[in-house]
Write a structure and sequence with these properties.
9 helices, four-stranded antiparallel sheet, binds adenosine-5'-triphosphate
């Protein structure tokens, strides 16, 4: 599957320009992490790709056909977890998945529901009413409905929100497994979610594309811009602290900056440092 976005612009009726002239091509199999600060335009991009919104300018092609002409075909291959999805509070988990399976036209729903319940560790809750579930369990129901029918395209808007660290690792591995033969696009604020599993990262900020490439290419951009300060960085140095630790010798701060003082010990950037460096630099742009 190939999704092409050409010069996509989305301006909401309020006048807010949420995406500006975005051109990207996504092809399967691949797991792509979509990163960006709050309000960057990640959900807007995902809504455009799932035809939940129409762009004000630009075009989307699905396997070289315009999205407007292939919407039915796209939806048949799509598993989508929106950021705010409505759950039917009075249904049990199985009833809800059964309903979603019917909407998706899945032929043997029972076996498929059993599979997604097991993949999302929800088998023990299968008979629980949705209103009785915890936040993390509700999120897993959302993921389960996206996985129904093994769609070729998975679009997951912040799938790990509300999940505990153990569950996050489980889902990270599950999505990576799915991406072996599918196209998986997931948005997140959590760098660890994309660190070891995504082949490709797309970073957007203020509706514009800041970076598109492999994680190690993003890391390379921050080389020479990450240092460790003994104590807090002195006043007057424009930098962003990405970590701090208490040691026997006092506090050590890890910070990224466009220009570090000569005396600071430079260290290898992590992906998180590189992301903070990229987004911070953009935020300071006049
Ligand atoms: N329906 C809407 N009407 C007007 N403006 C909107 C609408 N939806 C989103 N926006 C604005 O568009 C911009 C991009 O929003 P979007 O939800 O796509 O960002 P995001 O990257 O997903 O943010 P977050 O990480 O906080 O979920 C924001 O400034 C937001 O306030």
């Amino acid at each position: 599957m190939k999704l092409q976005m050409e010069h996509l612009t989305m301006t909401y009726p309020t006048g807010k320009k949420a995406l500006q002239d975005m051109s990207l091509t996504l092809s399967s199999p691949q797991m792509i992490g979509l990163l960006g600060p709050n309000g960057a335009g990640k959900s807007t991009l995902m809504k455009l790709l799932t035809a939940a919104l129409l762009p004000t300018q630009g075009s989307i092609f699905v396997d070289a056909r315009p999205l407007a002409k292939s919407e039915g075909a796209l939806k048949a291959q799509l598993g989508y977890l929106p950021q705010d999805f409505g759950l039917y509070e009075e249904l049990t988990v199985t009833q809800f998945l059964d309903y979603m399976a019917a909407l998706k036209g899945i032929r043997a729903p029972k076996a498929e529901i059993r599979r997604v319940l097991s993949d999302t560790n929800l088998t023990p809750q299968r008979r629980a009413r949705i209103r009785t579930l915890s936040g993390g369990q509700r999120q897993r129901v959302g993921i389960a409905q996206a996985l129904l029918g093994s769609p070729q395209l998975l679009i997951l808007d912040e799938p790990t929100v509300g999940l505990d660290p153990e569950e996050r690792i489980h889902f990270r591995n599950l999505f990576a497994q799915e991406a072996k033969d599918k196209l998986v696009l997931l948005s997140t604020h959590i760098i660890e979610d994309v660190q070891s599993v995504c082949d490709r990262l797309i970073v957007i900020h203020g509706g514009e594309l800041l970076f598109d490439g492999r994680p190690e290419q993003l890391v390379a951009r921050a080389q020479g811009h990450v240092g460790v300060f003994q104590g807090y960085p002195p006043q007057g140095i424009s930098c962003e602290v990405t970590a701090q630790v208490n040691t026997a010798g006092g506090i050590l701060c890890r910070a990224v900056a466009e220009k570090l003082p000569e005396t600071v010990q430079k260290v290898e950037p992590t992906l998180e440092d590189a992301y903070v460096y990229l987004v911070g630099k953009e935020g300071k742009r006049p």
